[in-house]
Automatic annotation (TrEMBL):
Residues 287-304 have a biased composition (Basic and acidic residues). Keywords: Membrane, Transmembrane, Transmembrane helix. The keyword Metal-binding does not apply. This is Ig-like domain-containing protein. SMART domains: IG. SUPFAM superfamilies: Immunoglobulin (SSF48726). The chain crosses the membrane at residues 16-37, 252-277. GO terms for biological process: cell-cell adhesion. Residues 287-383 are annotated as: Disordered. One of its GO terms (cellular component) is bicellular tight junction. The lineage of its organism: Eukaryota, Metazoa, Chordata, Craniata, Vertebrata. Residues 18-122, 126-230 form the Ig-like domain. The keyword Thylakoid does not apply.
């Protein structure tokens, strides 16, 4: 028969135990006696781990009952096996010769499991017992601090251990050597859920670079928990100031360089944009000037066609020959609008009837007794 669950009925087990006790008490009268050879031993474990306890009895045993703080948590019957009351409590059996060992295993141990563990075989024989101590491993850290310090400057390093059970034992090491207790002070405070807090403050005056280690220890830990920090010691305040000034100077130079570079980049971008716009505007103006020039040339061409061009190679006639020319009667007037190609209006021989063109009018030239020099003939071309 196996009964499981955290809320298993305890009344049935309590009724079962007296009946079994009466039965085995009567059996002892017929020579069926046995005893506890080795009982459980004390155990200290961390919360969340397992706890194990052994109880060894002599041959002829009939029942073994495990109790935690007076409450039965597991029962083993010689003929019926184990009666499990809670899932966290199980057992393993070992038989060697004429002895039998029942090993109680407590899984996922809680802080509330701390207390008295008993092994009972009834028959009026005293129970064998041990104690279970469940401890809690909390957190450990060194609080905010400056890793760089000045030489011969006295400083304080604070280490905090929070949420421990029981309160941990705290110590310090400098460069892997333990520090005398007079150099640090530890203060205790009670936390929630029966947990404990410890704050340890180490005072020192470093002369060179040092490695500081804070340690917290409880019995259930295989080795102490630790937190470490390295201090860098500067030679002097002046050196520190020089380093700070150097760092500040480099920062300023870098900032100025970036600012100037960014400003130059913006100026170059604006120049490129301006040149592009200027080139575009210049191209547009050139096109406008071409159109305007074309229109002007067209207008001038029309004006020249209507008004005519003056022959720049004309030179006035020699006045000496003009005086010797006899007067003749003028010829009848001719049409004022006379259009003729330029080569038709040119007089190249004295035998032809000469005409003189004046402002779109053609008049006959006076005959002369002297030969006319063709260089001195003025021609007017009408278009």
């Amino acid at each position: 028969m196996v009964v499981s669950g955290e809320n298993a009925p305890m009344d049935s087990l309590q009724k079962f135990i007296p009946v079994t006790f009466i039965l085995f008490a009567s059996l002892t009268g017929f020579g069926f006696g046995y005893s506890i050879i080795n009982g459980p031993a004390n155990a200290t474990v961390l919360a969340g781990s397992e706890a194990r306890f052994n109880c060894t009895v002599s041959q002829g045993w009939q029942i073994i009952i495990w109790l935690l703080n007076g409450n039965a948590v597991l029962t083993t019957i010689h003929l019926g096996g184990a009666v499990v009351t809670l899932d966290r409590f199980t057992q393993q059996n070992y038989t060697s010769g004429e002895t039998f060992t029942s090993e109680l295993i407590i899984h996922n141990v809680q802080q509330s499991d701390s207390g008295k563990i008993e092994c009972s075989i009834q028959l009026g024989i005293p129970n064998s017992y041990a104690f279970l101590s469940v401890q809690v491993n909390g957190s450990l850290f060194i609080k905010d601090h400056n890793s760089t310090v000045r030489k011969n400057e006295t400083i304080e390093i604070v280490c905090e251990a929070l949420g421990w059970a029981p309160a941990p034992n705290m110590t310090w090491m400098i460069n892997n050597s333990f520090v005398d207790k007079s150099r640090y002070v530890t203060n205790h405070s009670q936390g929630s859920n029966d947990l404990h807090n410890e704050v340890s403050t180490l005072t020192l005056t470093p002369l060179a670079n040092e490695t500081l280690t804070c340690l917290a220890y409880i019995e259930a830990l295989p080795k102490p928990q630790n937190a470490t920090v390295t201090l860098i010691v500067q030679e002097s305040l002046a050196e520190n100031g020089n380093q700070e000034d150097s760092t500040r100077t480099r920062t300023i130079i870098l900032a100025v360089t970036l600012s100037v570079g960014f400003l130059l980049l913006i100026i170059i971008i604006f120049i490129i944009i301006y040149c592009c716009l200027k080139n575009k505007e210049s191209t547009y103006q050139k096109e406008l000037r071409k159109v305007s020039t074309k229109k002007t040339n067209d207008g001038s061409e029309k004006t020249r066609r209507s008004s005519g061009n003056e022959n720049s190679g004309y030179s006035p006639e020699d006045p000496v020959h003009t005086k010797q020319m006899p007067r003749i009667a003028p010829l009848p007037p001719m049409a004022s609008n006379f259009h003729r190609p330029e080569e038709d209006l040119e007089v190249s021989s004295a035998s032809e009837v000469p005409y003189k063109v004046h402002q779109n009018r053609v008049s006959p030239r006076r005959p002369t007794d002297y030969p006319v020099n063709p260089r001195k003939i003025r021609n007017m071309t009408l278009v």
